[in-house]
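Sequence in, structure out. Go.
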Amino acid sequence: MLDAFANKIKIALRSCQFHIVGIIPYAVLEEISSNIYNLQGKGIFVEFIVIMENGNKSIKTTNTLMRMSAAGGELYCLEDGAEEVANFVHIDKRIALNSNGIDYYIDTDIQTHLRLEEAIYQKFKEKAILIVHQSGRPEIIGYASQEWVKKGEKTHIFWEVEQAQSVIIYPQKIELPLKGSIEIQINNDCLISIQAKNDNIITEKRIFIKALTSLGITFSVFIATDPSQEFIPLSTHPDIPFHYAIPPACALRLYWEAEQMGILNENTWGEIPSNGFRDMQCNENTVLHFQWKTVFDVKNIDLHFYILDQDIKEELPKTEKTGHSILSFLRRRKLLF
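Output:
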């Protein structure tokens, strides 16, 4: 079972861009260690609580843990049997893998699982022993007021450092006092790094911030003009979002994916999972009315589908500028099919 878990992690790590966190047995860590070394070489931040089968670590075990720690990883050891621990790995706050075989990157509400398991991680972190690869190193306590932030909004970074001569935060490259906070605007997913230096010894604390889109949900449209053909992506109007021109009698597949917890409703369909898809066929111009409720706000999102035929003019929006723009869009689309 652990072999299957390790193989699943190896595959998922291929898409990692920023951050890995989890609780795993040492046997799994050893199996994926070469993958972790490669990712650390690319600047990926690694956080693990490692479950040790016995209190005595071999030289190989010690070297593995020390190497990951020296490369900037935050590793903790916890003796097996102290308390039953669920094994899981999270990647970039968007993929959640579990040793019980239930994977949440395809779940309808991934953020719930992420937050729940990260709370478990923090609970066991308090009981675990931090792996220190160098004595005399500065000690850093650092955290963000929010680790899920809407793009363009701000989060506060707090820190407290001991045994350090200098403290710098990256990528801002700002020198900091030993204790304080700073407000940072988040425009994209990012790793915040607090580096403390004591003589030639450098300690780093990294914090991964997930940037959420203004809507917090994305829609993708795919079409198949013939049942024997595969679905192909369809772009929205370049100037008017959520307006799509589709050929008559084609199969339509609508995907949606949420970046945060929320409740999604469509006027006709009712409440639907926050991640999913639906196959449709539009025989006439159609509008889907979605309402997306999150802890931030409530968004009303309308998706417009226009059928490519000669009578389309009667169904277009009545404003001259918008109507002309969509009509031109439809005409260009008609030449493609």
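Check: DSSP finds five helices and 23 strands in the chain. The mean pLDDT is 83.
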